[in-house]
Amino acid sequence: MKKRLTVILSAIFAATVFLQAGVPQKKSVDEFLRMSNTDTTFCELTGVVSRIRNHERSRLFIDDGTGSALIYGLRDAKGQGVLALDIRKGDTLTVWGRRFLYDGRVIEMKNALYVRHSYGPDHNNVPKEDELDREPTFRGKGPQEFSKWVSAHLKYPKEARDAYSDGMVLVKFVVGRNGGVQEVEILKGSHPALNEEALRVVRKSPKWKPGMVDGHSVRKEFKLPIYFSSDF
Question: Which top CATH class is 129-228?
Fold first, then answer.
């Protein structure tokens, strides 16, 4: 119950940051570390994850070449931490938050808000299809079941309808080690509103059962054509 309450409070905090903090100032790690202890400027840091000290508390370090910053209590807007976001050493991470001095000596970004991250070389190691012992599955079935789920949740954007626009949007995504859908992007687009709708739905995907190699869950890349058609 306590753990659940902590996650809920983290999600509320993240949402509050989005609403109240405004636009963050981009800073290097060195600039962030040199800020005054009384400076409450809302900052943006980007760096490579050099160490993950505690998954449960989302405690990690990022390095941008000018220094190393401790990020504590990292959450996204839904209250998800390092494990759920599938963050690993070597990934490039962007976070928002304020400087905090812990115990009078440790500088950190406390209750940081996850903005985005790109995957490092080791993280991006996606096995070939013939290397998988078990393919990823969606609700007990294959990619075809996911295609049906996407079709059922698509909404035809009014902007595209008014422009008499239809067509196919080709989306790439990765099913991560934890079964979450990640790295969603457009490979071949159509009308901008159709592109955004395709991204919106795929990003909302429920979790899959990840692929397996030698008893370990692995990442797998998929390409999904999404067709929009309407009788104008």
Answer: alpha beta
